[in-house]
Amino acid sequence: MSIIASRGVVDRQANFYGGVRNLLAAAVYAFILIPTLIVIPISLGGQGELSFPPRVWTFELYGQLFSSTSWMTSILQSVKVAVITTLASMLIGIPASYGLVRFEFPGKKFVMLLLMSPILVPVIVISLGLYLYLSRLQIVGTTAGLVASHTAYVVPFMMMTVMAGVKKLDPALEFAATIMGASRLTVFFKVVLPQLRPSLLAGALFAFLVSFDEVVIAWFLTSPATTTLPVKMYSSIQWDISPVIAAVSALLTVLSVVFCLISVMFQPQAATDSAP
Amino acid sequence: MNARNEGWLYVGPATLFLFLVMLVPLAYVVYTSVTTASGDFSLASYQRLLSSDLFKRTLLTTFQISIVASLASLVLGYPIALHLAKQTPRKRALYMVLVLVPFWTSILVKSYAFTVLLGRVGLVNQFLSFMAGSSVQLPMLFNRFGVMVGMTNYLIPFIVFPVLASLLAIDQSLYRASEIMGAKPPRIFFRITFPLSLPGVAAGVLSTTVMSMGFFVIPALLGGRQDVMMSNLVDFYTRETMDWNMASAIGVILLGIVTLVAIAADQAKRFGSRPGVPA
């Protein structure tokens, strides 16, 4: 009898503390989600109307965005830079991920440190270095200079995803193919890459989004003719907060939701047990 | 098969590319910081920095903001990690989306949202005015408060991931044992959950501190003149005064500080992952 009674007390206490924990968690979920999501209703309020919820619902800001040459040019420029960056970083990053996981070779530690350095070094120092270096080579402000810089910058982000994928592969398959007479190239393209498809997709998405959203390097390396979307947003927020920026932000939020859902769908375990 | 060098076949192109586009530019920053405009060796930029009040104040501000923002994001991020850890794997994947969406969202979208939310006639002040029944215009933007809110908001996911990993590694039978022995929830939290999550907490706090030291966009857009951080000073010297030597010297100092913290973090990790602590 007394055991049952005290069991009830324990449960009530557990419920109480569980409730407090959930309440705290709900408040923080709201705190991190509100800035991301609130740009959607703001973008539908029209003309930089700062009331919430909007008094009128309109797509006027989107009309303004799509008819503004300067915004559309910067969006296209960002897409162009991000697409080329993604392809280039896959070209060098995928073999590198495979090589680092599968082989031991002299200088491996140095290679690892070098390839991960864009994540470890503060991005402002990278930007300054690239700015000085590209000024010296007289290609600062060009799209080519920005693409090369972004490619180096996103390589580790892509490699983290691909290396995790390679680690899960069974080396016996590659070994079997080699014994059967397949060349290194055949093994890589016919055995390794097809198995890696989900990690490659996730890595490519990651690389695209990192480049598409990157602002500091682009702020240093672009000229008015090669401005990317984040740089345009940065100067717009700093100087003249044009209401169009609400529409841009809402579109970017939708983009990140879509990317997030895709990455969760393709990596069910990664989303729960480890950081992306 | 020459396995000793086969690895280089795969890592070679990436290594060469990053050598040219990452290592050489970084070395160039170091070189620029210790030479004069004419190319002679000189430590003049460091001497000028150390006697500059602007630099000293910025260094102090950077440390203050980074440490406070990192601790604030720990305090706020921990309940989320705890909440996620208590869910079934299926539900956890679902709630995880709530952390991943802000994680994937551009920092400029969030900064813009905060200028709308925190302004003098922003949504938060409108809401407070509505609640108070009189006009409230708290200054929350272009000051330290705005920077802190923006940075904490940005850093929370970077706390949640490592802390969650630590929490999930805790042996569930410890909880059952402590409950059977009659421990109450607060005691279980402070004697089991929190101590065993310390490796994740340390990893999260150190990495967010290092990240915040290099923050650029948030102090520039949400802070005022008193909240200039090291990155903004680099930008100022590079683009406003064109003093590349000074900019490089600040860059080298920032890189040095970040490297020291990272080495400390690595040592702490080794210490924390000794046998006996669930990894």
SSE diagram, text form:
The complex is a heterodimer of chains A (276) and B (279).
Chain A: H1 2-43, H2 60-67, H3 69-102, H4 108-120, H5 123-136, H6 143-168, H7 171-179, H8 184-195, H9 197-213, H10 216-221, H11 229-239, H12 244-266, H13 270-273
Helix pairs in contact in A: 1-12, 2-12, 3-6, 3-9, 4-6, 6-9, 7-8, 9-12
Chain B: H1 3-33, H2 44-50, H3 53-85, H4 89-104, H5 107-118, H6 123-132, H7 144-168, H8 172-180, H9 185-213, H10 217-222, H11 230-240, H12 244-272
Helix pairs in contact in B: 1-12, 2-12, 3-7, 3-9, 4-7, 7-9, 9-12, 11-12
How would you describe this structure to a colleague?
Chain A is mostly helical. In chain A, 79% of the residues lie in helices and 0% in strands. Chain A has one domain (69-273): MetI-like fold. Chain A contains 13 helices and no strands. Chain A is globular, with a radius of gyration of 24 Å. Residues 268-276 of chain A have low confidence and may be disordered. With 279 residues, chain B is an all-alpha fold. Chain B has a single domain, classed as MetI-like (MetI-like fold). Chain B has helices spanning 3-33, 44-50, 53-85, 89-104, 107-118, 123-132, 144-168, 172-180, 185-213, 217-222, 230-240, 244-272. In chain B, helix 3 (53-85) crosses helix 7 (144-168), helix 3 (53-85) runs antiparallel to helix 9 (185-213) and helix 7 (144-168) crosses helix 9. Classes of the chains: A mainly alpha (276), B mainly alpha (279). The interface between A and B is large, with 95 and 95 residues.
